[in-house]
Give the backbone structure.
Amino acid sequence: MTTSLRVGIAGLGTVGASVIRLLERQAGALAARTGRRISVTGVSARDRSRDRGVEIGDAKWFDDPVALARSSDIDLFVELVGGAEGVAREAVEAALSSGKPVVTANKALLAKHGMSLAKLAEDKRVALAFEASVAGGIPIVKTLREGLAGNEISRVYGILNGTCNYILSRMEQEGMSFDDCLKEAQSLGYAEADPTFDIGGFDTAHKLAILTSLAFGTAVDADAIHVEGITSIRLEDLRSADELGYRIKLLGVAQRTADGIEQRVHPTMVPKSSAIAQVMGVTNAVTIDADAVKELTLVGPGAGGDATASAVVADIADVARGIRSAPFGLPTASLAAPARRAMQRHEGGYYIRLSVHDRPGAAANIAMRMAERQISLESIMQKGQRRKASAGSPVPVVLITYATTEGTIREAIDAAVSDGYIAEQPQVIRIERE
Ligand code: HSE
């Protein structure tokens, strides 16, 4: 057996502690599979005194992750601190600059600085591995980069945030409030340190930016992503979706079109019979449409200590074996600058929930605003019953449209709002068909 691989881990939260436990539990199998013993020889975290329920044994403690990244006590730096800037970025750059391979779960860092970090890793001829950055335990990075190398991919989409899927599932199934579901997700260790990243859709966007680059051979382009989170979703939307034969999921979608790549993150109505609609709780799912394999869906745990540690340890094992892939599947100079397709040109069906002043002509007006833009309605439904005393007060009206474009639907809604029949900000949810 060749010399052991000495690992330094920065960040001992839920994932860091699970990585240490998993390396310990699988020590024998990992040594057999990689031909090397893997030992944790350095650690760094914010608070040395906190009980994390793990033994760090003889590993040297570093107060400063950057010092750990540069230390000659380690051969591989594992970054589990998080955040696109600050100490996480400095430490990763320090490790790569000093010729050490890096394993990271940091999607925010990769979405923002993935290209420069990949270039640095390439120049230094060391690995930059990030399987854990997307979809927790699902090996989607390897699948896109190695497993589907013989395919041309046309679309990649999925449920990429366990916290949001957990919240939407619990709201739908238990009728619980948004806030209570979020608190549960936090207590289970799924949510980001700042949960706005989850519920605002940004975490999904970071992951989508990485998948898009891997799928289409383009430079990471996170700024091009249209991002909406789930904070506007109400129980009544989930119930209406159910009645209409849909479920609401937060999806990240990247699609190759004739005019460029469309990247979007938003709550989406998916048919209840579709595979993606069956994915509940913290589970993630990624579907890839490609020419040779046709359609491939991977489903698995998208967040949580053990699931994410599984992906981190797989990357550590690759480094132990001496594997060094181009981080985004191609040499950085060959990654194309992506052509962007604007969200206004997105085509699809729409669910629209309006709060409409219950007066004669209200529904006809809305239907007219749609018809004059050639928007065809699949259904229109007024919810609830008017009481005599409340004539003219707002009632919910739900519309489902056939395929149209984002720009057209927005124009129609703006026109209907200006006509004065609509009481509140309309809810607009896109429909994704398989
Ligand atoms: N907060 C993330 C999620 C963790 O809920 O999916 C995994 O990236």
